[in-house]
Amino acid sequence: MPGPKPDEIEAGRAFTSLPVINISPLVDKAQSALAKAQVGAELVKACRNVGFFYVTGHGVEEETYRGILQLARTWFQLPEEVKKQIDIGPHTHFRGYQALGANVTRYDGGFQRDWHEAIDLYKEADPDTPAPAGKQKSPIHGPNQWPSQLPAFESGLRRYLDTMLQLGSTILRGIAIGLELPEDFFEGNRAGVDMAYWVARVIHYPPLPKQAVDLSSQPTSNGNAAAGEAVSSRPPEDGGACRDESGLTEIARSVQLSCGEHSDYGLLTIVNQEDGISALQAKNSKGQWVSADPIPGAFVCNIGDMLKVWSNGLFQPTVHRVINSDPAKSRVSIPFFYEPAYEAVVEPLPQLCSADRPPRYAAIRYGDHLEGKVLNNFEL
Ligand SMILES: O=C(O)CCC(=O)C(=O)O
Ligand SMILES: [Fe+2]
């Protein structure tokens, strides 16, 4: 089986920093097969040990990834009624703008509103696409609500998303190599660039109320090997609860988060974040939060549920959260989620199962997994 041995994984999952991987051998076709294999091995080690890694040498122009964050910032400064022209809802196929507090994280016994506003986009799909036998038509299929109030942002975003699609496919090629699968394993109907049901969120995180900022001083910073203080994974004590119209309980927790603890749904997430604000944090096996501090020129990547299933649990998605630690500045980020094809049936790969490691997960249609998650994400 490729990669480190189980005891090394256990030690690795207590990570106190996130690996930085130069993927240029995957981007530059002229580089040797050996160089690609080395990057593949590093990617697999990072996926097995940490579930998070930075990529450098990705070939994306600085102007592209910085420029789009700047345009996003400008769009979020528009008046609320203008942003609400592209408001999200079931009638918009869950695509568009969600105001501050519309996105929620669910915990046992309730949910908490996340302290951010965002635009949600997905691969565009005809809402009349016939559903496979025994399935409903997807409520998510439809056109995007592009931020057309700022044309430069819309056109820049379209180009940016194409760039991320290519980058996601490139990184997955490296992961396939590292897993000793055919290099094009994820291409075509599984998760090729034309088929991948990508998701993107353009997010604006205003400064948080003070309690949350105090909490954020505790994690271990990336690059600093000293162990950070353990922060309980249990939601902080309730400060009371109220019921919304749907009968769900909104927990008034003592601490507000920019984005609550969760792991991602698909294959690979590529986060473009502004320099200078630490906010994204990954949880290690000891329950410590490790900051994914911005590294200029690098994207932060993390893996999702579908890689867990395909790898038969060799890879585990790492829980993460966002706390904008700057009391005075808001933060903008664009996570891009590279996902399988909507109709892809994801199941443990025979190559990664054995008598000792029988298949751990049932086969799942990716679209079903996504719908189960997305339809629970809002209190609109
Ligand atoms: O904004 C970020 O840094 C990451 C957000 C995130 O984890 C998500 O949207 O799934
Ligand atoms: Fe996430």
Automatic annotation (TrEMBL):
Matching entries from SUPFAM superfamilies are given as: Clavaminate synthase-like (SSF51197)
Record's keyword annotation contains Iron? yes
- Fe2OG dioxygenase domain sequence ranges: 235-340
Keywords noted in UniProt: Iron, Metal-binding, Oxidoreductase
| Residue spans of biased composition, Polar residues class | 214-224
- Show the GO MF annotations: metal ion binding; oxidoreductase activity
Q: Which family does it belong to?
A: Belongs to the iron/ascorbate-dependent oxidoreductase family.
Protein's name in the database: Fe2OG dioxygenase domain-containing protein
* Organism of origin: Apatococcus lobatus
